[in-house]
Amino acid sequence: MLARVAAALALVYLTYNPEGFSFFHWVLQPKAGETGLGAYLSGFTPVKALAGLALVTAWAIFLQATRRSLGVGGALLVMALFGCTIWAMIYYGAISPTSSRAVAHLVLLALGVVLAIGVSWSHITHRLTGQQDTDRVG
Q1: What is the 3-state secondary structure (H, E, C) of 20-84?
Q2: What is the percent of the chain with per-residue pLDDT over 90, rounded to a whole number?
Q3: What is the rounded CA–CA span in Å between residue 52 and residue 15?
Q4: DSSP state of 93
Q5: Nearest to 118 by CA among 55, 56, 68
Q6: What is the pLDDT of residues 78-129, one digit of tens each?
Q7: Dihedral angle sign, alpha carbons of residues 102, 106, 104, 77
Q8: What angle do CA 72, 50, 119 make, to 5 degrees?
Q9: 3-state DSSP: the chain helix, strand, coil percent, rounded to 5?
């Protein structure tokens, strides 16, 4: 389970994070002195394209597994639970609502945990209930 949480958090944080060390910042950071769309596209390389395709593939795997195991309603319910938790942390002063970095980290953490739960849900329910999930083919 911890490996799945780590993989989901790595996926989320490699895609975007507020610290500026992510695929989003790597690809969309303009070159010094350049403006306009050309400033963003001039540094696009095959390595960046390959990294982007790897991230898209990983997102597809995690989102598909989450959709199959939790369903859209279940994923929204878990996100709502985390959203209310973040709201409570802001409401009771545990974090400042003006700290956009702290709020962004909490949202990214929540998204990563939701993806990890989605990928691990069959294993969790098997441990809790002893029942095994199977997919019907055909």
Answers
A1: CCCHHHHHHCCCCCCCCHHHHHCCCCHHHHHHHHHHHHHHHHHHHHHHHHHHHHHHHHHHHHHHH
A2: 41
A3: 9
A4: T
A5: 68
A6: 999 999 999 999 999 998 888 889 889 999 999 999 999 888 877 777 677 7
A7: negative
A8: 30
A9: 75, 0, 25
How many beta carbons lie within 10 A of that of residue 71, not counting itself? 13
Residue 59 near residue 67 (C-beta atoms within 8 A)? no
Task: For residue 36, give the amino acid letter.
Answer: G
Mean per-residue pLDDT over the chain, rounded: 84
- Rounded to whole angstroms, the Cα distance separating 28 from 109 reads 23
Q: Is 82 left (phi over 0), alpha (psi -120 to 50) or beta?
A: alpha
Please give the Cα distance from 27 to 19 (Å, whole number).
15
* Contact between residue 66 and residue 119 where contact means Cβ atoms under 8 Å apart: yes
Nearest to 103 by CA among 111, 112, 95, 113: 95
